[in-house]
From TrEMBL, chains A, B:
The lineage of its organism: Eukaryota, Viridiplantae, Streptophyta, Embryophyta, Tracheophyta. Gene3D superfamilies: 1.20.120.1770. The gene is LOC100845313. One of its GO terms (molecular function) is oxidoreductase activity. Its cofactor is heme b. Two-heme-containing cytochrome. Catalyzes ascorbate-dependent trans-membrane electron transfer by utilizing a concerted H(+)/e(-) transfer mechanism. It comes from the Eukaryota. It comes from Brachypodium distachyon. This is Cytochrome b561 domain-containing protein. Residues 9-215 form the Cytochrome b561 domain. It is found in: Membrane. The keyword Lipid biosynthesis does not apply.
Length: 233, 233
């Protein structure tokens, strides 16, 4: 099975976003480190990289998996749940890096809208994974119940994904605003600031592409989220 | 026709969001003014109030209109397009207030992610209104073409709406971050900061409720955006 064209577009956006966030953290922000006695900013840099690769990129691939993978439904399901598990693991580690950076730098935790939305996103993501695992994998609900729950599983999953996207957008804005307002003195129209804004635009295009792709009209037999094009006269 | 329960919940969120943003701008930020020789912040305050009441609240009502209004399709359509026109007018005036505040305070324009996303949202909103007007109202396309375009009109409209929501969320974060970092010295856990975050959460709940409501499963005969619940075995 060839990869569908919309999935190819999504993957180009994923690769662009990953390259841009790495360019930002390595070239402009000095690189990544789990421990750093002098430059605590290096610990922070782990956060955007892991959140983007985890919840956003692997999350996107997991969401699209039933439409993009060539195997049977059972195999695709295992890939779907494993991708989401890795996404959650990387996301949790990314959240840990943000707290570690705050704690070692004497910065308050959990006061900003970014942190509230982000924590809500990862909690919902985790709840969604556990309930999906129990319903569709092990121990697994009855076929009737699975069929009834599936549209809610798919829609709740998209809510968690969109919340993660919102957290990412808020995070890009928050970090560059700190860098512009603080001692770093990053210029408002500097190449770094423009690149961070551009990265955020790429991530929002990625998210919009994934949601529109998996809910595309006229595919109601191909995927549980396919829109109906039936028109009430 | 009674107002459906989800629409009642949306209206409660709309009223809460409007009350909170007014409380913020009037009680914490000194009120609203179109001209102010000394306190330019009063000109800024016009911006969040008009954007929220315009693009978000009237936009939400316009999007739900085919499901909430008791009249025939032709009348509902006129209310739908008039609500969106008023939303666009208030939104454009709100954007003007932001530029006026910047220009009179010597602040750069259009450098932030909020401004980029917000400008994209209102441009897409305007394009969507003009193309919808021409296709579905005057001069109006053929019935066949209208039927073909309608799902795209509805989905593009939701994209513009979600972009407006994203701009609003970014705006709340940006403004409170400026107030926390700047001379205003607003505390990170102050009642004002918590209230602004809470307002942003109410707005995101409002947006999620509207999108989930108009795309609800099992209503494919009732609305063009109804999800299909057909399951591929």
């Amino acid at each position: 099975m060839a990869v569908p064209a919309p999935a190819k577009a999504v993957r180009a956006l994923e690769a662009t976003a990953a390259a841009l966030v790495l360019l930002w953290c390595v070239h402009f922000r000095g690189g990544l480190a789990l421990n750093s006695p002098t430059n605590k900013g290096l610990i922070f840099n782990v956060h955007p990289v892991l959140m983007l690769i985890g919840l956003i990129i692997l999350g996107s691939e997991a969401i699209m998996s039933y439409k993009t993978l060539p195997w049977n439904r059972g195999t695709n399901k295992i890939v779907h749940l494993v991708l989401h598990a890795v996404a959650l693991f990387l996301g949790s580690f990314g959240v840990y890096a943000a707290f570690k950076f705050h704690n070692e730098s004497g910065i308050d935790n959990l006061y900003s809208l970014h942190s509230w939305v982000g924590l809500g996103a990862i909690l919902l993501y985790g709840l969604q994974w556990v309930s999906g695992f129990a319903t569709f994998f092990f121990p697994g609900a009855s076929p009737t119940l699975r069929r009834a729950v599936l549209p809610y599983h798919a829609r709740a999953g998209l809510v968690a994904y969109v919340l993660a996207l919102l957290a990412a957008e808020l995070g890009f804005l928050e970090k560059i605003t700190f860098l512009q307002a603080g001692a770093a003195g990053v210029g408002r129209y500097s190449s770094e600031a423009l690149m961070v804004n551009f990265t955020a635009i790429v991530v929002s295009l990625l998210g919009a592409s994934v949601v529109l792709y998996v809910t595309a009209p006229g595919q109601q037999n191909e995927h549980i989220l396919g829109y109906s094009a039936v028109h009430k006269p």
